[in-house]
Amino acid sequence: MLTLYHSPNSRSTRIITLLMTLDVMDQVEIRLTDIPRRDGSGRRDPNNPHPEGKVPFLVTEDGETLRESNAIMLYLCDRFPSDIAPTVGAPGRATMLSLMAWYGNVLEPVFVLNAVGINHPALASTFRGLPEALTALAADLEGRDYLLGATYSVADLLLASAFLWLPEAVPDVPVIKDWVARCGAQPVIAQTAEYEVKAQKTLADRA
């Protein structure tokens, strides 16, 4: 059985959303773990095998491990094929891979750098900035409901997660605002929120 190390209301929440979307929660053991939080709460859990004490962290049946959300999500989508992700060779597969890599390599870094107010010419030349990233995202959404077309996909799940986590960061760009709203209205988002409330209580009761 796969094992996911998960901390409620963290980056690993989107992995829970994916598992629910794939309808495979019963095929993955969820191990709740604490993590240090930016507000000073939480702690590093010695039982979490992630080398940096972070989440998400996935362990396969044969002991291989995966970290980083986009890698874990791609692995799960290939392991449990469904309509949420194009399979190898299918239309949209290349776009999905590009967007999910772009999220981890560009969008989230500039999102964080902007939030903490860090600017440097080297960062700008490497990642550009948040305005450029939002322009690129808006261009990808122009004329379509979701990133791969007419239906919600794992690319939407991943890229929208940052804006759903921090709603005040949603830009005043209609095509992006409408897309975030559509992603947030997916029934699985509400189901995930209910799960996280229970998971947070379970974790708190252990403390």
Write a compact overview of the structure shown:
The chain is of the alpha+beta class. Helices cover 52% and strands 8% of the residues.
Explain this structure to me?
The chain is an alpha+beta fold and 207 residues long. The protein has 8 helices and 4 strands. The chain has a 4-stranded mixed sheet. Strand 3 (57-59) and strand 4 form a beta hairpin. The radius of gyration is 17 Å and the shape is globular.
Number of helices: 8
Arithmetic mean pLDDT = 96
Content of β-strand: 5-15%
Q: Segments where pLDDT lies below 50 for 5+ residues?
A: none
Note the overall shape: globular
Write the layout of secondary structure elements.
Blueprint: E1 2-6, H1 13-22, E2 28-32, E3 57-59, E4 65-67, H2 69-79, H3 93-116, H4 121-127, H5 130-141, H6 154-165, H7 174-184, H8 187-206
Parallel strand pairs: 1-2
Antiparallel strand pairs: 1-3, 3-4
